[in-house]
Write a structure and sequence with these properties.
The chain is mostly beta strands. It has one domain. The chain is built from one helix and 17 strands. A seven-stranded parallel beta sheet has the order 2-6-8-10-12-14-16, with no helix packed on it. The chain has a six-stranded parallel beta sheet with strand order 5-7-9-11-13-15, with no helix packed on it. Strands 1-17 form a two-stranded parallel sheet. 40% of the residues are buried. The C terminus is likely disordered.
């Protein structure tokens, strides 16, 4: 069987049948540091902190600013918020990354990360850990998956979701998403449209 194949599992399938084991979703990160976008820089020309992020005024918002954000070595929550953001969470830690509205580019790195594209046509790349990559919002996706439904009206354009090394979970939507697994074991959320993926996909019948 070639990569990119789909195996339909019957409704009576039990984990371990035929030597197939479905992955458990990794635990959510315990956040110890927060980095946010859509804030006004304090100086012009810009000044940068030791992480490479522009120093901003936490009390002065700048809606829809196109941010470039970098993580720390801690377990970060990184919020791009509005605008077309670039978020590089490649240093380490178990990070929770939220792109927000706009066309965002998100890169996860070391650690077991969660990345949510939110609205807009986003590009999301996993790292070497066991990541959960969502083209949309994590909460909405989990509710839809639990109900056995498909997503509707969440996003107008499809997302690009790329796994890497590690046991990743890739979640698209009902739009024209492109999901590529990369190395390691992957699992695609049931009920979502897949344009392409480079790993075996096991879908359990309802």
């Amino acid at each position: 069987m070639e990569d990119g194949s789909t195996i339909e599992l019957g409704e009576n399938f039990q984990d371990g049948d035929f030597g197939i084991r479905l992955l458990d979703t990794p635990a959510d990160p315990v956040i110890t540091n927060t980095i946010v976008g859509d804030l006004t820089p304090v100086n012009n020309p810009f000044q940068y902190n030791f992480l490479g992020n522009v120093i901003t005024d936490p009390n002065n918002s700048a809606p829809d600013r196109n941010d470039i954000l970098y993580d720390s070595f801690l377990d970060d929550r990184i919020e791009g918020r509005g605008g077309n953001d670039t978020i590089n969470a490649t240093r380490g830690g178990d990070d929770w990354i939220l792109g927000g509205s706009g066309r965002d580019a998100i890169s996860a790195g070391l650690g077991n990360d969660i990345a949510e594209g939110n609205s807009g046509a986003d590009a999301i790349m996993g790292g070497t850990g066991n990541d959960q990559l969502f083209g949309e919002n994590k909460g909405e996706m989990e509710d839809i998956i639990a109900a056995g439904e498909t997503a509707t009206g969440i996003n107008e354009k499809g997302d690009l979701v790329l796994g890497a090394a590690g046991n990743d979970f890739l979640y698209g939507s009902n739009k024209k998403d492109a999901l590529f697994g990369g190395e390691g074991n992957k699992r695609q959320a049931k009920g979502y449209r897949r344009e392409a993926i480079g790993n075996y996909i096991f879908k359990k019948a309802a």
